[in-house]
Amino acid sequence: MEISGSRMVVEALKREGIDTVFGYPGGAIMNVYDELYKQDDIKHVLTRHEQAAIHAAEGFAKVTGEVGVAIVTSGPGFTNAVTGLADAYMDSVPIVVISGQVPMALIGTDAFQEIDAVGISRACTKHNYLVTDAKDLPRVIKEAFYIARSGRPGPVHVDIPKDVSAQITEFVYPDKAEIPTYNPAFKGDLEKIKNAVEAIKSSKRPLLYVGGGVVQSNSGNLVREFAEKTGIPAVETLMARGVMGSTNPLLISMVGMHGSYAANIAMSEADLLISFGPRFDDRVTGKLSEFAKEAKIIHVDIDPSSVDKLVASHYPIIGDLHSVLTDMLPLITEIEPEQFEDWRDAIEKNDKLHPLGYDKGEAIKPQEVIEKIGEVFGDRANISTDVGQHQMWAAQFYPFSRPRQFNTSGGLGTMGFGFPGAMGVKAGDRDRVAVNVTGDGSILMNIQELMTAVEYELPVVNVILNNNYLGMVRQWQTLFYDDRISETDLTVQPDFVKLVESFGGVGYRVETMEELEKALLDAEKRNVVALIDVKVDRRENVMPMVPAGGSLYNMMLR
Amino acid sequence: MREDRHIISVIVQNESSVLARISGLFAGRGYNIESLTVAPVPNDSGLSRLTIETYGSCKTVTQIEKQLNKLIPVLKVVEKDDFVEKEMALVKVPIEESLSDVDALARAYNGKIVNVGDGSIICMVADEPTRVAYFIKAIQKYNPIEIIRSGVVALER
Predict the structure, then answer these.
(1) What's the Cα-to-Cα distance from A398 to each of A219, A239, A257, A533, rounded to whole Å?
(2) Quick check: B1 pLDDT over 70?
(3) In whole angstroms, how far apart are CA B51 and each of B10, B82, B109, B156?
(4) Phi, psi for A401 (deg, rounded to 5)
(5) What is the Cα–Cα distance from B2 to B128, expressed in whole angstroms?
(6) CA A375/CA A396 separation, integer angstroms
């Protein structure tokens, strides 16, 4: 079958099982959009900014576990997409981004809307391609999807010059990608797994350090089983929230800069860290020389470069976590949950001493907003966030019940991620309420997506924890810069209710907890994009806090 | 941490931008490249070999190796201290200098005079990198106009 390069793109997407793509057209990608117009199998969601298209594809990928797809044009279309690519790269999100490029003959001539796209994306993708002949397109797209989803997942960028998408040639879509230089690890070394199990048996104060890899590898159930079988308590990273489930007695809480007192102390006192797919991020470890000083470290990760990068491990296991846990679980014998009872008791004592909490006051506390959302929606909602104080409060106080329930920008910390991310989540999981917990700073960074959400019926419930500040920066200014509030005061604000109404959504201004509950339920019922503007205590800080570069066990508590 | 000299040999698929991927990796992660040579692997379809000379602690070099292996077009990374290493240098000296002295010096370092022009002579040497450095020191008294080093090529024993 001889078809055009652009038709190949559409046919390849269909064969990859893609039914939804996010994007924004423009000159160099018009051939592909013409093919999208001619078919009905793939639904295209026109975001109002390319960055949002990428974040939506990320949200879709995170909630479904499948590859998300976005399509943009050359030049500014592509550069707008770069933040999304970098975000996906840092959080290992499997997406494929297709961009148009100026025709081959114009490459290198500073043509209209020309930019060296693969030159830019090289630093923020798992892999990228500039396709110079339509004959290569089927192979390249097959490889792109394979690379995006296999091994440690990540974004793959495919740049297609306009004459290549117009070129007509033979189309045969390969059954599988064959890349001789790319062989991602899968099975872990059984000897090493056995050694790790022996270390667990002889440990006194073991701790599960649960990271985002558990979500990526769909190993949530196995990790819960592991914990139950052994009675070993667990801490979760930001990216792993939801894995253990908030009601699980073995879950201590989140660990790290804003982790709970008991979680951070457990990390510091453990004699064995059983690390399942975390990457020892600086926001988790604090000062490296003081991190888990008493512990031997088991580190299971699919990416060899994650192991021993920051913290040397004693039992490194390279492999797919699901496969490693499947091999490991039957070896867990002669471990009785009772043997760690003293250790669990000590942790519980710490948790009772300094539980995650806050003081109620006259103004609404941001933490109680999160608790209320949890009470109203609970398991029924998928929670996305932007970046800042609200993100940490959501991570601390939402009653997560399952993996993939929490969609946040962890590694890159991208303000503006939450709303488009939540649109992608809604597109991928229509049966649940898509909530975006956001701040008055972050929400304005992709506010134009209100239009997309209305047009494509993606009824995201945005809850703005409005403190009229760029709250997290304000918190650091208060704590570390003598309260000099440099450029973080957001007293000047739009009328959020009128703003969302002008796009055709619904808005709520909330001043009491009763109004909040009503607004949440009303927004769900109306099934249209919503902004709920909640005035919260302006000066509330996220606590506990490990100051950047400090030791994990040295926390500010209030 | 101690910064030692390391040689890393990398076999890659010879495709466009593979060199940019590797130099970008070094630049982006703050690793240094002391010298770098690259050429297609003879008699082999579509592979190239890069030889990178770098300075870093063992931990850093291990991480470099892992990061290189993560790049999709990289087939193999070899980091050992058991390489036969050679480097070449070309030196241009004024014609006024003693031809026989320069020639004798070059010969001592596995080289010779390779070009005699109107105003200058060019000699080459090919030897271990440390020996090339000695040669460059020794040639200084003949007022060299220009010196070029090729960077290291290395092969596992």
Answers:
(1) 21, 14, 18, 19
(2) no
(3) 6, 14, 22, 11
(4) -120, -10
(5) 23
(6) 14
> Within its chain, how far is the Cα of A416 from the centroid?
13
Average pLDDT over chain A, rounded to an integer: 97
Beta strand residue intervals within chain B, DSSP E: 4-13, 35-40, 47-56, 74-79, 83-94, 112-116, 120-127, 146-156
* Sequence-ordered alpha helix ranges (H) in A329-448: 341-353, 366-377, 389-397, 418-428
For tokens 């080093």, what's the residue?
A: B149
Alpha helices in A91-249 (DSSP H): 117-121, 137-149, 162-166, 190-201, 212-216, 220-230
Domain ranges of chain A: 2-170, 190-353, 366-535
Q: Tell me which residue in B13, B21, B59 faces A122 most closely, judged by beta carbons.
A: B21
Tell me which amino acid residue A230 is. T
- Would residue A323 be called left, alpha or beta, if left means φ above 0 and alpha means ψ between -120 and 50 degrees? alpha
Topology agreement, domain A190-353 and domain A366-535: yes
- CB < 8 Å to B59, chain A: 308
Residue A436: CB atoms within 10 A of its CB come to 32
A2-170 CATH pick, 1.10.10.10, 3.40.50.1980, 3.40.50.970, 3.40.50.620: 3.40.50.970
B79-91 mean pLDDT: 93
Size of interface A-B (CB pairs under 8 A): 37
What single DSSP character describes residue B131?
A: H
- For A33-47, what is the mean pLDDT? 98
Catalytic machinery residues of A: 50, 112-113, 162, 472
* Separation of CA B36 from chain center: 6
Is residue A81 within 8 Å of A51, Cβ to Cβ? Answer: yes
CATH architecture of A190-353: 3-Layer(aba) Sandwich (3.40)
Residue range A366-535, CATH number: 3.40.50.970
Cα A209 from chain centroid (whole Å) = 18
What's the pLDDT at A227? 98
Nearest CA in chain B to A121: B21
Domains located in chain B, CATH noted: 4-81 (3.30.70.260), 84-156 (3.30.70.1150)
Q: How far is CA A321 from the centre of its chain?
A: 18
pLDDT at A310: 94
- Contact yes or no for A130 and B73 at CB 8 A: no
ipTM of the complex: 0.91
CA distance A234 to A422: 28
Among the partner-chain residues B20, B66, B74, the one whose CB lies closest to the CB of A181 is: B74
A182: distance to nearest CA of chain B, Å?
6
Select from B17, B72, B74 the Cβ nearest to the Cβ of A147. Answer: B72
Which residues, other chains included, contact A115 with Cβ-Cβ below 8 Å and sequence gap of 6+? A74, A75, A78, A79
Q: Are B24 and A123 within 8 A, CB to CB?
A: yes
**Shortest Cα distance from B129 to chain A (angstroms)?**
31
